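User: Can you recover a sequence for this backbone? Please restate the input before giving your answer.

Assistant: Of course. Working from this structure:
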């Protein structure tokens, strides 16, 4: 009686084990096929782009260290610092040299109403060839102005209000300066000519401008100005109708830098 159930259970286990082995074999086969497919894809990718793999390996091998990165940025910072310092020094040098450079250009070309110095003029040849009065031309009236800075206790006036000269004719004028203070003072004068188009033709042979003038307390001195009007002004259309020229002088108190060197006043 018990043999029949036992036979049934053994046949059931046999059939279930057969089905279990069937599913296990299918699962292992699918896993092996999947692993084979992934391996094939990896091998194809590595063989199709060998340069990319080599480049990646090389990039990993030559990656810069932190010390190299710091050295690189240190060099860049030093370069920027050098350029900045050079720019600052150049700006300072230009600011110190701008005043004398501007004065030299104005004295040579007559820009800004600055008279041309006869010994440094813009023409060639002997100056005596220029000093020939043009008698056929009309005389030009030259007037004189004088002023003093507020911080300079001087009295500064022209001794004549005007002179009339021919182009090419020399003229001598005088200014008078008096130190009204109780101390010795050094002053320096700047000058200009109006109208401005006449400045290139107003040539000074001798003057006291841009030179230190020391006056003792209560002292009075005469300061001469020896000049002429260049005959070339007759050929300048801008000078047509100009009958009056004004020479302006202004005295300032001389200033010195920390090293005791004289500092020329700024040209207006």
């Amino acid at each position: 009686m018990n043999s029949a159930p036992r036979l049934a259970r053994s046949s059931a286990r046999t059939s279930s084990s057969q089905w279990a082995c069937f599913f296990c074999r299918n699962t292992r086969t699918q896993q092996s096929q999947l692993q084979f497919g992934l391996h094939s894809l990896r091998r194809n990718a590595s063989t199709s782009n060998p340069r990319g793999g080599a480049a990646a390996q090389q990039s990993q091998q030559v990656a810069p260290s932190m010390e190299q990165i710091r050295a690189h940025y240190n060099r860049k910072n030093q370069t920027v610092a050098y350029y900045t310092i050079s720019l600052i020094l150049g700006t300072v040098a230009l600011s110190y040299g701008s005043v004398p450079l501007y004065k030299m250009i104005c004295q040579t070309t007559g820009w800004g109403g600055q008279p041309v110095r006869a010994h440094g003029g813009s023409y060639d040849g002997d100056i005596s060839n220029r000093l020939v009065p043009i008698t056929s031309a009309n005389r030009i009236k030259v007037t004189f102005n004088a002023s003093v800075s507020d911080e300079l206790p001087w009295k500064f006036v022209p001794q004549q209000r005007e002179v009339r000269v021919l182009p090419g004719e020399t003229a001598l004028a005088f200014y008078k300066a008096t130190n009204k203070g109780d101390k010795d003072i050094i002053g320096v004068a700047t000058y200009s000519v109006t109208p401005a188009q006449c400045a290139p033709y107003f040539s000074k042979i001798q003057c006291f401008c841009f030179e230190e003038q020391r006056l003792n307390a209560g002292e009075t001195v005469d300061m001469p100005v020896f000049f002429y009007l260049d005959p070339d002004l007759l050929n300048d259309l801008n000078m047509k109708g100009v009958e009056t020229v004004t020479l302006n002088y202004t005295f300032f108190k001389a200033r010195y830098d920390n090293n005791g060197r004289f500092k020329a006043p700024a040209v207006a």
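That completes the design. The chain has three helices and twelve strands.
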